[in-house]
Write a structure and sequence with these properties.
Elements (H helix, E strand, L loop, with lengths): L1 E4 L5 E4 L4 E3 L5 H8 L5 E2 L6 E2 L5 E5 L4 E6 L4 H5 L10 E4 L1 H13 L3 H18 L6 E8 L2 E10 L2 E8 H9 L1 H4 L5 H4 L17
Parallel strand pairs: 3-6, 7-8
Antiparallel strand pairs: 1-2, 4-5, 6-7, 9-10, 10-11
Length: 203
């Protein structure tokens, strides 16, 4: 049982896991994708509450051992103040977990996606240098890779489609790119995301 605080200010105990093995509980994959994972109904107001809680997600068949760090601990994690279980890779916030599950579902390389996200981010920042832009992988549509671009306009996502040939080229060059800046920094630690550059004074 874990303690949950509802926006109505009620505090209650809910049966929410601290870890889940997707090989043992495959239904959790769909729950993560549809948003019902780690959610509970408030006994006071009846609202569905989705608390920002840490959870470890593993799957030996997918080569996955992910520790979800709450979004509100992002900058504490950047400072090295949030420890991870041994052997785990970090994602920060529920949306990043969804993105990784989408990548596993589509059998695409999370690292290649981060390279593409960096290139899309650089292009978006040329158009809106002051915007706080976040790129999110949505999925595959036939031979294209679809990304949402948040931050260009308030509360509105743009959609970018990357041809499959560009993904394949990125994948073929991944070993070389991983040793080059800024990708060597992106892939250096346990949090292998383009957003790690937010904590890097060089970017």
């Amino acid at each position: 049982m874990r303690s949950v605080t509802c926006p109505c200010e009620a505090v209650f105990e809910a049966d929410l896991p601290e870890s889940v093995d997707l090989d043992v509980r495959p239904r959790a994959v769909e729950e993560i994708l549809d948003g019902s994972f780690l959610s509970a109904r408030c006994p006071e107001c009846g609202s569905i509450v989705k608390p920002d809680l840490p959870v470890r997600v593993t799957s030996e068949s997918r080569g996955m051992d992910i520790q979800v760090v709450p979004e509100m601990e992002r900058y504490a994690f950047y400072r090295g103040a949030v420890p991870l279980p041994s052997g785990s890779e970090a994602v920060i916030g529920y949306r990043e977990l969804v993105e990784r599950i989408r990548a596993a579902r589509d059998r695409v390389s999370p690292r290649a996606l981060e390279v593409l996200k960096y290139l899309l981010l650089a292009r978006a920042q040329q158009d809106s240098p002051e915007a706080e832009i976040v790129i999110e992988y949505v999925g595959r549509e036939k031979d294209t890779f679809v990304f949402d671009v948040w931050g260009m306009k308030a509360d509105e996502a743009g959609v970018v489609r990357v041809p499959g040939a560009v993904y394949e080229k990125t994948l073929s060059e991944l070993a070389r790119k991983s040793s080059e800046e800024p990708f060597s920094r992106i892939f250096a630690g346990t949090y292998r995301s383009v957003r790690v550059l937010e904590a890097d004074p060089e970017e």
